[in-house]
Write a structure and sequence with these properties.
The chain is mainly α and 448 residues long. The chain has a single domain, classed as Amino acid/polyamine transporter I (Up-down Bundle), CATH 1.20.1740. It has 18 helices and no strands. 55% of the residues are buried.
Length: 448
């Protein structure tokens, strides 16, 4: 369990890397979908509240553990527990995180595969000649084609695991860091277009004027899970980033910067998408296909729309590709730690994730009528289990480990913001974050 010696080249490099890992489908695809199904501004308020009270404190805890341990997640947890005279079995929390990543990657690959299909359609210019109704119908027809959905799921997962098997993710991450600003620019362009639509004002009111009567227990659970998902918190992946964090960087400042950039992407996407939704008379609660229907409508009205839309999906695919590599890497590294060769580990993980993704891929076609628990589709289950349940549980355990297991001097040094900040952060985690997590999770299981 030797300590890693590499570090990120600069404080800016660390922030860009963590932002690149966090920004992806959670901001652009899932945020509008969840907001649409959970009351608009009511969901946004809950999401920001959980981000502040749970997401940020636990994000500090997770990165701190990686920075204090300077090892892989399982090794860092074991090392710090032994150092504090506690049970080495805390290392199994790293395995739980790996299982969570496994489930997340299974549906992440399926949805990212939808982007591949849309990239091909966008570059062919087929959206330009379609009405909004035809664009929506084409998406439903695509989901109802099991062969196409599985093919794109397979292509995306092959691209992901090939990079992980070869161990060349660093080059792709550098490319992502170069092109991610272009994704921000395209989102700003979309918002500029949204201003010209008839639904812009309605979208702003719907997004930023809360209707508290729209708050439901499910909205609460979805908002909490999304706060963890959008920050990539709760599965231990950020521990790996913390292990390479520069020694002179303030952890709280870096975390706040990442959160602001992350939320900004979600809000830009939400404003653009819901402006189109209301201007076209669409239902904001249209489900997981919301982004794939609204964006082609928007770009179809812009000069050179096919090129812009193609560029958007190229950049989105790049963002999701690097994020999926970050999801897969800890699982492959875990198998590598027991002596398995990287290519074989990537193959085993890839096959397992592909098989786990099949129910999600087929839940809109062959298995559309299959329902579990509270009338959930298999796709609903695949997204709810890891995001709304496993990530918060992982976050809870990480928080407990950070404030009750890690030695205070080690934690103060790793956070890098002084003893006063450490004491305030620890109090917030102990008396706000952990009780709130327990309360919401208990309510979820009692409701189920």
């Amino acid at each position: 369990m030797s300590e890693v010696v590499e570090r990120w080249g600069s404080r800016r490099a660390f922030i860009i890397a963590v932002t690149g890992a966090a920004v992806g489908l959670g901001n652009i695809w899932r945020f509008p979908w969840m907001t649409g199904e959970n009351g608009g501004a009511a969901f946004l308020v809950l999401y920001v509240l959980f981000l502040a009270l749970l997401g940020l404190p636990v994000m500090v805890a997770e990165i701190m553990i990686g920075r204090a341990g300077r090892r892989t997640p399982m090794q860092a947890l074991t090392f710090l527990a032994r150092e504090a005279g506690k049970s080495r079995h805390w290392g199994w929390l790293g395995l739980f995180g790996g299982i969570t990543l496994f489930f997340i990657l299974s549906f992440y690959s399926v949805v990212s595969g939808w982007s591949i299909e849309y990239l091909v359609d966008a570059l062919s210019g087929s959206f330009a000649s379609r009405s909004p109704e035809q664009i929506g119908g084409a998406f439903e027809a695509f989901l109802a084609s099991p062969g196409l959905v599985l093919l794109n799921h397979s292509i995306f997962l092959f691209l992901t695991m090939s990079v992980v098997a070869l161990g060349v993710g660093g080059g792709l991450e550098r490319l992502n860091n170069l092109l991610m600003p272009l994704l921000y620019l395209l989102l700003i362009l979309l918002v500029g277009y949204a201003v010209t639509t008839s639904g812009f004002t309605t979208a702003l009111v719907w997004l930023f004027k809360p209707d508290l009567s729209a708050v439901t227990l499910m909205a609460v659970f979805n908002a909490m899970g999304h706060a963890f998902f959008t920050l990539a918190v709760g599965a231990g992946a950020l521990m790996a980033y913390g292990a390479y964090m520069p020694d002179d960087q303030s952890l709280p400042r870096a975390v706040v910067t990442v959160a602001i950039l992350d939320v900004a992407v979600a809000l830009l996407a939400g404003i653009a998408i819901f402006s189109i939704v209301f201007s076209q008379g669409m239902d904001p609660a249209s489900g997981p296909g919301l982004m794939f229907v609204t964006l082609p409508i928007a770009f179809a009205d812009l000069p050179g729309g096919a090129l812009w839309l193609g560029g958007f999906f190229v950049l989105l695919l790049l963002a999701t590709w690097t994020s999926s590599i970050n999801l897969a890497e800890p699982m492959v590294a875990m198998l590598g730690s027991i002596g398995m060769a990287r290519p074989l580990a990537a193959l085993i993980i890839g096959i397992g994730v592909w098989l786990m993704g099949v129910p999600s891929a087929l839940s809109f076609s062959i298995w559309a009528d299959v329902r579990v628990f509270n009338d959930m589709t298999l796709f609903d289950l695949a997204t709810t289990l890891p995001i709304d349940i496993m990530l918060p549980i992982g976050g809870l355990l990480i928080a407990i480990f950070a404030v009750w297991i890690v030695d205070a001097p080690r934690a103060i040094e790793a956070i890098g913001a002084g003893e006063r900040f450490y004491r305030v952060w620890r109090a917030v985690v102990r008396w706000v974050s952990i009780p709130l997590l327990v309360l919401v999770l208990l309510g979820f299981f009692l409701m189920k």
